[in-house]
Amino acid sequence: MPSMSLFLSQLFNGLATGLLLALISTGLTIIYGTLGVVNFAHGALFVVGSYAGFTAYSLTDSFLIAIAAGAAVALVVGLVVERGLMRMYYSRPDEDQILVTFGLGIILVELVRSIFGGISLSVPTPEWGQGVAHIGSLIYPLYRLQALAIAAGTLAVLYYVLYRTSLGLIVRAGIEDAQMVNALGINVKRTFLLVFGIGAMAAGYAGVIDSPIVTLSPDMGHRILVDSFVVVVIGGVGSFPGAIIGGIIAGEILSLTSMFNPAYSHVMLFVVMALVLIFRPQGLMGQEGRE
Amino acid sequence: MSAHTEQSRFSTPTRPQGAIARRQLPEIVVGVCLLAAPFVLPHLGMSADLLTRILIWGLFGLGFDLLFGYTGLLSFGQSAFYGTGGFVTAYVLTAGIVPHMLLALLIGVIISAFAGLIIGYLTLRRTGIYFAMSTLAFGEMFYFLENSLFKEYTGGENGIAGVPPPEISLGFTTFNISSGWPMYWFVAIFFFVGYLIARRIVRSPFGAVLKAIRGNPKRALALGHSIQNYKLTVFVIAAAYGGLAGGLLGVFQSYMPPDAFSLDTSAQLVIQTVMGGAGTLLGPVLGATIWLYLYEGLQQVSNIGAYWKLILGFVFVVLVTVFRHGVAGGVLDYMRRGRKTTKEIDPDADTSAMAQLNIVAPIQGGRSGAPVLEARGITKQYGGLTAVSDVTFSLSEGELRGVIGPNGAGKSTFFAMLAGELATTKGQVFFRGQEITGIGVTAVCQLGMSKSYQINQLFESLTVRQNAMIPVLARSRGKFRADMLQSLHRSSGLDEQVNAAIELVGLTHQADTLVSELPYGEKRRLEIGLALATGANVLLFDEPLAGLGPEERVHVVALLKSIRKGRSMVIVEHDMDAMFELAERITVLYEGRKLAEGTPDEIRMDPAVQAAYLGGMDEHESA
Predict the structure, then answer these.
(1) Domain residue extents for chain B
(2) Is the C-alpha dihedral spanning B132, B138, B143, B146 positive or negative?
(3) Mean pLDDT computed over A226-246
(4) Radius of gyration of chain B (CA)
(5) β-pair type (B385-395, B400-404)
(6) Under a CB-based contact definition with an 8 Å cutoff, are residues B271 and B287 in contact?
(7) What's the structural domain count of chain A?
(8) CB contact under 8 A, A267 and B134
(9) A169: burial class by Cβ within 10 Å (0-12, 13-18, 19+)?
(10) Is the CB of B306 less than 8 angstroms away from the CB of A266?
(11) Is residue A192 helix, strand or coil?
């Protein structure tokens, strides 16, 4: 039986992983919720963001600039993609949207690969994040603690934007009935552009935050895509609170299972997803009747 | 399998030989191509190994195309079954559990199919994007399982090496199949048999229902098909194809690689199928040819080799955007130009003897004298809103009842509850004395009650004839039947019933037209025709005249009158004149409640109705 302190530290680890997963998944879920599109290029946007951050970091030595660069590049890519491609797809069947975003993901990842090569890169922890933190008896890497705080803070900001601003109101109304919102004289098209951009930005931003913890490789997008799908299936597609709860659950499962046997951590994650599909197919926070 | 084909060829002597040859043309062409490939394609630089690999992907793709191209289920987790079949086959062969290679392949197929049953059960609980996401996730689960729980058997990251070369012992003699061209022939036989089976599935009644599910799952369900069973079955079939392809991969390479389980495998399958053309069966093998040939070709060019996947990504996005039907789809479209769409049903089948469509005999055991359809205090609440409140309703045998009410009176909700589409919050519905509350629209349809919709619910990409076939099949085959190897042409009475239904709604001249090309008025008639073709003896019509011009209205009113014999009907309609002309009795709904009920004259005179509806129309409409 693992010791109490190990358990606590893993619990904490799970929260950090979970909030990062939640952050990635919110991007996916608000795009789906508003536009009705599942962005299969979401993992690729994460890759684009983290490599953009990596570049900015090595050029400027400032991690804050790296974060801004990662988010900005992903945002721009998101905006260009929405204007240039996705707009043609809103009226097409789901499967076409899935296929085109999937193809887009391949293009983005392969572009990254052709620029940076396929080998893994590691991003050093920023100066202000080095060392360990003491929380009671718990010794914990400082950057992970900060990443947790950053993710939580960003989620709070996103929550504020979605639930306390007029843009958020339009987005949430658009989720319910985009046509009606349009009829009320609000430019849904512009809102859609903005939402797609924000969703992409969330992925890129999370990519930079995550980069000192993991090693970068163009192929990590797959893992991110799968993990965020699991999170939204557990939490409920299109639900913002669902993404957060799903993210934390997924993070804790990954972290607590790896305490016993790391090889099983992902398998456990899928077991939980299967249970959700059996007992609550619409997801924990999902609404009945919405696909 | 081929014996089966022979049999069906000879047991239909009434058909001209030419038509049969034409019908079997794809099988013949594929067979000839497989035979000719080793003599032609090496001149284009294709080796035996490359062709074998293409056929393995093609076989994998046959199952996937049934799932995606025909049923419309886009799975991103097919690698799970490819890997499972491959590793099970490789393991039982290398561990010496099963010495016989064909048996080992069979075990691989069975276990893959079983995995398909479990994953299908889980993922098919949701549709659309949920399905794509959860299949992708479960596909990854198998990758992790291979690397953890089953590492001992699968070799984890190393895979299974040393899969013995195929040998087939027939007792008296043993064939050893060496790599190169013998291996090609070996795999080609599997591919061809797999293709024959897939063709049969596509052309069976089972296959017709799959196409209906792709076109309009909601209506397929309402017409009496248990679509969940069909989806699960086709998912298992696709998994079995994947398992066989995976097993052959291990045997072909004498090595089973763990990346068979990777997301890239599923993705490659999806991309190949879309590039080649989904819904054609041969699309995947064409796509695999393009993919693998390009890959080999581009590797030779030193500057481009590294960018090959990038190029592929661009090509794929362009294809999905502008050329959605892929290569095979494009070729088929071209061939179809100028030619009428293929006829799946003999237009000359005897219609005169069947001038009237078979109507389901009323179910046995129903209490005699009981109303045909009865609602007892049914109520529907949505949160705080009560759409229908405590409505009691009774329809007697042979009656034609009208239901009217101003907008928002709850007519459609009331109707949906009668038809079993919507659960009641309170109250019960009885059909010939049997309670049908909450048994679902499919079961209700199978009992003999069907509904036509206010907004057309048709199978747009099928012809009129193929549309009418869907309800007839539900009637003759029940909720679900796994008759995927039976020929559609041999279903007895199918042609007659389909033709009779089409004739009844006056669409014989359009029988082979795609529904998407029909004018609105004719679509409207087909909408009614679908309900009729179920053979239901109780019909619910939700605003059958909606959106029709004056001329078409006359048509449809005459049609509704003409089909009364042997049927009981309920019609919801806005058109007062038509309603007073058609109905014997009228029920008036107002604000979710039953306001009045009586003969047309009584309703006309009823002061409450006048106030609420006829007289107060303007008030309510403008409110």
Answers:
(1) 2-336, 373-622
(2) negative
(3) 89
(4) 29
(5) unpaired
(6) yes
(7) 1
(8) no
(9) middle
(10) no
(11) helix
B12-61 pLDDT per residue, tens: 444 455 666 677 888 899 999 999 999 998 888 889 999 999 999 999 99
Taking the C-alpha atoms of residue B528 and residue B544, their distance in angstroms, rounded to an integer, is 7
The DSSP element (H or E) to which B294 belongs, if any, is helix B283-300
For residue A275, give how far its alpha carbon lies from the nearest alpha carbon of chain B (Å).
9
**B57: number of Cβ within 10 Å:** 27
Give yes or no for B305 touching A (CB within 8 A): no
Tell whether A38 is covered by a domain. Answer: yes
Task: Please give the C-alpha separations between residue B36 and each of B29, B42, B151, in angstroms, as whole numbers.
Answer: 10, 11, 42
Count CB atoms within 10 A of the CB of residue B475. Answer: 24
> What CATH number does the domain located at B2-336 have?
1.10.3470
CB contact under 8 A, B133 and A278: no
Residue A6 lies in a domain: no
Q: Is residue A1 part of a domain?
A: no
Q: Does A277 touch chain B (CB under 8 A)?
A: yes
Query: With bands split at pLDDT 50, 70 and 90, how would you rate the model's confidence at B623?
Result: very low
Cα-Cα-Cα-Cα dihedral sign, residues B155, B158, B162, B167: positive
Distances (CA, A) of A199 to A77, A194, B83, B476: 11, 9, 34, 50
What whole-number distance in Å separates Cα of residue B412 and Cα of residue B371? 21
Query: Quick one: average pLDDT of B63-84?
Result: 95
* CATH for the B373-622 domain, from 3.30.1360.120, 3.40.50.10330, 2.40.110.20, 3.40.50.300: 3.40.50.300
| Residue A135, min C-alpha distance to chain B (Å) | 34
B263 in contact with A, Cβ within 8 Å: yes
Give CA–CA dist B103/B169, Å, rounded.
11
Q: DSSP assignment, residue A119?
A: S
Kindly compute the dihedral angle of the four CA atoms of residues B599, B605, B610, B615, in this order, to the nearest 10 degrees. 120
> What angle, rounded to 10 degrees, do the helices at B494-504 and B520-533 form?
140
The reply to whether A114 touches chain B by the CB within 8 Å rule is yes
Q: Report yes or no: A21 and A231 within 8 Å, Cβ to Cβ.
A: yes
Range of the domain at A73: 23-220
Determine the 3-state secondary structure of B124 from DSSP. Answer: coil
The 10s digit of each residue's pLDDT in B588-604 is: 888 888 888 888 888 88
Write down the ipTM of this complex.
Answer: 0.89
Q: What angle do CA B387, B392, B393 make, to 5 degrees?
A: 110
Mean pLDDT of the A206-230 span = 90
CB-closest option in B128, B307, B320 to A100: B320
Please list the alpha-helical segments (H only) found in chain A: 4-35, 42-60, 63-84, 94-116, 142-164, 166-183, 188-210, 220-235, 240-260, 265-279
Residue B120: pLDDT band by 50, 70, 90 thresholds? very high
Give the residue from B329, B428, B306 showing the smallest Cα distance to B379.
B428
Q: What are phi and psi of B402, to 5 degrees?
A: -100, 145
Using one digit for the tens of pLDDT, what is the confidence trace for B398-442? Answer: 889 999 888 778 888 898 898 888 888 899 999 988 888 888 899
Mean pLDDT estimate for chain B: 84
DSSP string, B555-617: HHHHHHHHT-TT-EEEEE-S-HHHHHHH-SEEEEEETTEEEEEE-HHHHHH-HHHIIIIITTH
Comparing CB atoms, the residue among B125, B149, B263 nearest residue A281 is B125
- Cβ distance B274 to A99 less than 8 Å, yes or no, reads yes
Bridge partners for B538 per DSSP? B449, B568
Asked, for residue A185, whether it belongs to a domain, the answer is yes
B138/A270 Cβ within 8 A: yes
CA atoms within 13 A on the CB side of B71: 31
- Cβ neighbors of A183 (< 8 A, separation 6 or more) are none
Nearest to B139 by CA among B87, B83, B77: B77
